[in-house]
Please model this.
Amino acid sequence: MPPPLVSHDPNLRAPRFFYALVPDAPAARRLARAGSGVARACRGRALDAPDLHLTLAFVGSRASADRAPLVPPELALPEALLGRADWPATQLDRLASFGRGIVWAGPTRTPVWLAELARELRACLRSAGIAFDEKPMRAHITLVRGAQRWDEEAPQPDFEPVAVASWHLALGWSRGRRDGPRYAWQPL
Model:
């Protein structure tokens, strides 16, 4: 289950909202350990286990008070998307970078169920008039930010594939603080 709902400090900049799948706790811990090793190798900052997620749709910055339209029942998500914990297990077997100091883990190929889930969620957001980044989803979990040394051609740090046994759909947002988890979650 995702970490409990945490409120955002209203004195900080507007949080950035997104819909994501949060991996089960054992998989998140294994990914965080892998991220720590990668961060040492590439001189970056590893994300902690409670912050690891696979983004399905990025909404962007909004005032904290604007969270209500983003969650059910205001956002009419089909029952098939809500409260599920039976999405197929997913093997994260690839370590790569987008550049910009981001190193991530993901599946070699995006599973059909995951692509369909992202399409369905995005269709619901469009129907509700909620704008989001329309870039195609790239199935990945960011492990490291601020990587200073990463060369796709060079030997990569050891990375053991991680199987995510279960996922939880959640609305996430940046907390804007350095203490504690980077993100807050509201399970859907």
Summary: The helical segments are 25-42, 112-127. Residues 25-42 form the longest helix (18 residues). Residues 106 and 167 are 14 Å apart (CA to CA). The chain has a mean pLDDT of 86.
